[in-house]
Structure formats: structure tokens, C-alpha cells
Specification:
The chain is an alpha+beta fold. 38% of the residues lie in helices and 12% in strands. The strands form two sheets. The chain has a three-stranded antiparallel β-sheet with strand order 1-2-3, with helices on both faces. The chain has a two-stranded parallel sheet with strand order 4-5. Helix 4 crosses helix 5.
């Protein structure tokens, strides 16, 4: 059975979700060049193991509900099971992302400090760039050391919008959310 995919509309463009038998393995803005590579990595790690149909139905409904609440400014945490596919270091970095409070930002240096490797700032940034689960694993909450917005796989306009949403700023979606960047 192939991995299960579902597309969700969002104020920033469609989101492609891919579910494995273990949970959400990928959530990216549809059409991003990185999606094909990330999907191949997920398939290499998990084969084509999709969730059982009843589980898939429950997960797709839950993610749709949670995303709707998030984009309406009413959800701060996601409860869906995640299948984080990556190296042990990447896993630690992504777990640190999950601990950044809603509405706050950390620098890459703060994130490196959080995982107990203060000299690994560049490696942390690279691992953030490999995050396959946008929004839910909030790599958009990491900024440069001087407070500047830095790379985001969905593009800097989307990153700015997500941070604005989480900080209580009402803003229209960017006119052109497409962009080049890393997580």
C-alpha cells in the first residue's frame, strides 16, 4: 500500500500532507521543489507503509481540524502523531523546535544551546532545513541572531505571516507566498 497523501487549503496556499503507518511524515506547501526529495526520503525510510484506512480517515480529519484552528489563531499545539524521519541529531533539533513556545522565536544559537551543543549553530540550521513537517514542527519560529528573518522552505513571506499570526497580528496572506529558502 502506498503512503497516503491529502491536500489541505490554507491562507498561504495548499499544504500537502503525507501519512505513514506511524503518523504525519510530511507537511509542506504544495509545489515546493523540495517536496519530491522529501517524499523520496520518507519512502526510503518507511517503504510504502500507509496507515490503516480507519486510522488514515481519523488522522486526515484531525489534521484538517487542527490546521483550521491554527490558521484561525485558536490552536497553539498540534496533537497528531508525528513520524519524524531523520538522523538522531536531526531528531533532537526537531524536538527542540517543538519546545519553542507559540508566539515566540529563538535564534539558531538558542536552539543549539537548548540541545546542549552551543557550537553547533550551523548544524542546527542545516537540520532545521531538513524538517519535513512545516507549521506543526515550527521551524518558522527560528530567526537569525540579530532578529532577522532567515530561510524558510515555504518562503520568507509565509514565514513572516506565520510569525505575525502567532504574535496576534491580523494580516492578509502575502500576495505571492512563493519563495526560496530553507526551514
Amino acid at each position: 500500500m502506498p503512503l497516503a497523501t491529502h491536500t489541505y487549503p490554507s491562507p498561504l496556499g495548499d499544504l500537502l500532507a503525507v501519512f505513514t503507518a506511524r503518523g504525519l511524515g510530511l507537511l509542506e506547501f504544495a509545489g515546493q521543489p523540495r517536496v519530491a526529495r522529501e517524499l523520496a526520503q520518507l519512502q526510503a525510510a518507511r517503504g510504502d507503509a500507509a496507515p490503516a484506512p480507519d486510522t488514515l480517515h481519523a488522522w486526515t480529519a484531525q489534521l484538517g481540524h487542527e490546521l483550521s484552528e491554527y490558521f484561525a489563531g485558536r490552536r497553539r499545539h498540534f496533537a497528531l502523531p508525528l513520524d519524524l524521519v531523520g538522523t538522531p541529531f536531526q531528531q533532537r533539533v526537531w524536538q527542540a523546535l517543538l519546545s519553542i513556545p507559540y508566539g515566540q522565536t529563538w535564534s539558531y544559537a538558542q536552539q543549539a544551546q537548548h540541545i546542549g551543543q552551543p557550537s553547533a549553530t550551523r548544524a542546527v540550521a542545516a537540520a532545521n532545513g531538513q524538517n519535513k513537517i512545516s507549521i506543526v514542527v515550527p521551524c518558522h519560529r527560528v530567526i537569525g541572531s540579530k532578529g532577522q528573518l532567515t530561510g524558510y522552505g515555504g518562503g520568507l513571506p509565509r514565514k513572516a505571516w506565520l510569525l505575525g499570526l502567532e504574535q496576534g497580528q491580523q494580516a492578509a496572506p502575502p500576495a505571492s507566498p512563493q519563495g526560496v529558502g530553507r526551514g
